[in-house]
Each structure stands twice: as C-alpha cells, then as structure tokens.
Amino acid sequence: MTTRRLIVAVMTVALMLTWLLATPAYAAIYWDDEMEVFTGTGHGTGGATTGGFNPLPTAAEPVWDNPNTLSPNDGVGIPGTLPMTATTATKFSGAGSLRYNYTDRCQVSDGTAGLTPCGGSSSRNFGVYAPEHYGRVYFRISNNFFWGAPNGQSKLWGVRSTQGVSKLWFNFGFSTSMLVSAENTPATGQTSNIYVNYSMPREQWVCLEWRIKANEPPGALNGELQFWVNGSSTPTISRNNISWRGVGNNSYLDYIHVYRQSGGPTPQQVSVNTNQVANLWFDRFAVGNTRVGCLGIVTDFTPPGTPAGWTVY
Amino acid sequence: MKQILRIGCLIFSLVCGGLASAETATWTGNAEPDVEAYDIYACAGASCIVRAEPSMLTGTVQHVGPGVRHTFAIDLTGKDGSLAILARDTSKNKSGLSVSVPFDKAPPSIPATPTLQ
What pTM was estimated for this model as a whole? Predict the structure, then answer.
C-alpha cells in the first residue's frame, strides 16, 4: 500500500468514526405493553407471596409479574379478592388490562385497631438505563372509588431505580388531584411533592404521559418534569428546576412499579366490609426516549343513557 | 293408552321444565348513535351495587338499533339474586346501571328432620 493510499484509508476510517459518534441516538419506544401477559411471582406484603415486597426487576425479567399470584391476604377484607387482577372485562385496547382491587380495608385508616393497610405491586424494567425517559399509561377510575379522605395520599404507580435510591411516585394527592411525589428528593430521606393541576374523571380512560430528566450533576437544580393529559401538546405541568437527585445519588430511573395502596369503596376505612370493591385500571404502559403519544384520543366522554324497558320474565 | 299418556307427560315435563328454568330479559335499544353493546350483570342480593363487579358480568348483547326490542336468555336455575343492565358506547363510556330485577330460582333448603312426638 502506498503512503497516499494509507492516508486516504486512515482518513476514511476517521470520517466514518466521526459520523458514527456524532449521529444522535434514534428516538425509540422501548416497549408499549398491552398489559395482557403477566408472568412470574407477584410482589405482596405478606401471606403466601414469595419474592418479597420489592424485588428489583432485572433485564431478565422483561414483563410484568403476575398480579394473580399476589397474596389474597394483602390487607383485603373480602376472601379471595386479590390486590390486583389481570382482567379482560375492562380494557382500553387489546384483550385485557391490569386492575387494582380495593375493599373497605384499603382505605386510609381511621385509627381502628386491627385494620391493616393494603399492599401489592408488580414491576417492569425499562430495559434501558438512561438519565431521561418518557412514559405513558391509560388510566381509569371506577365510579365508587374514594381515596385518601380527607387528607391522605395514595400511590398509583412509581418510576424507580434498580441502581439506587431514586424513586418517584405518581399519586392521588389531596382531593382528586394528581401528585408527583419524589422520594429522596432533594436529599436522601427527604420527599418533595409536586402538585399537578389535573383532577381525574371517573369511568373514563385518560391518557397520561410524562417526561423525567435527571438533574446533572446530582444536587443541581436542573432536573426536569413534564406531564401531559390526553395527548395535549401543552403540558399540564412543566418544571426544569428540580433536584431529583441529591449529592451522591448517581442513580437513574429504570423501572415502572405499579403499586396498590390506599383507597376504597367508602370514604373511610370501616371495620365491617360492605362487600363492595372499588377499582382502578391501567392499560398500555409504555416507555421510551421520545414522547410515546396517545392512541385514538377519546373526545366523547358522554355516557349513553340507561337502557329503558328493562324487564325479566 | 296409559303408555302414551305416560310418554306425553314425560315429554311435557321435560320441555316445560326446561323452559321454566330459562329467563328472558328484554329492553329497548338506546337512541344514541354510538351505542355499541349492553352488559348484563347477575348480582348476589336484592340489587346490584353502584358499579357492578366485572366478575358479575353474565353476558353482552350487541346493539341492534334504536327502539329495537333486545333480548337475552339466561338460565338462573338454582340461583337467586338480581339482574341489571347498562349500555356502553364506542368511546368506552358506560351508562348507569338499570334498576335491579330480583329473581329467586333457588329451591328452599330441605326442612329439618321431622320428629314424631
């Protein structure tokens, strides 16, 4: 090879390397889950559950744990009522969704002795460990669901880290508003609440999207949060001054943690069950490094009338 | 002749007995243009609760047309409780539950063993 050819070859390789390194990562949806395949062992607070309350989902555990394997003893009062159910009866799309079940025993305690709070959770790993992610879920509340009366909060789902203490919850806050509650923010052991000006409707599928970007470096006031409802281009909340991670916390968020907590078919926990069950539903959880978007935005929220002439003979 | 009568009685009891155990629910089709189907719930107790549990869903009937008489047959033999219905539309909105119609097709329990005194 002549010197000239060698120079050309080296320059070509250098150009290719430069192009490859300069090319930004492609926008990608890591996964968009129909919430129909649940395998493995669920995570409960006690009873016959194995695996503990919060085992970390790994890349080798790429699908949801099976909520139907959760212990029926996780604070529910109606025998046989599971904390969560993989259901086909109500879904946004596909064949099924994930349903949380709340009996009276799951409501915020009124102090009555012997009543236990409810638990139950399931997880799915992003499959990607990065400082920024987008998420989306379709969410629905039953007509008879009450939560946190009068002052309580209830976790709905979380975004957590397999590598450290970063932990962020999407909750029902006071009244009917969404609340983003960041644990270990701005420092380990502390919690910061960020109120989202959005009250959940009932018996409607709503499309909720979020974006979270870690603050860099840890301790800096430059972490970001956006939250969108039903595909709006305007975020319901947009912040760029959050210290998600305190100094020394180098972890990124990398898994979804669905989590049943407080709530129920009555405003307050009662010692005798009414044999009613209130529900929340989740469908099409998705995560990626770009906005996932909403499918078939629903604009009709007017229910039909009750059928007339209902007769049984 | 007796044999014919016996066979006739047997057929009658089989047919009529079978029909007697099947209930028919009817209602009038909703007028909204986007109604998709009707969900029928069989609930324990005298009335279905505010939001019937999905596990109580006992059948679904597709909407045929506004004002059309819809029917749903259900065998309630040996059960008691109540039936209710709701309509849902293509946007997944659900109507309120109808009034609950109670039924009692469960036979009474066997009386306690009589005692002779």
Answer: 0.64
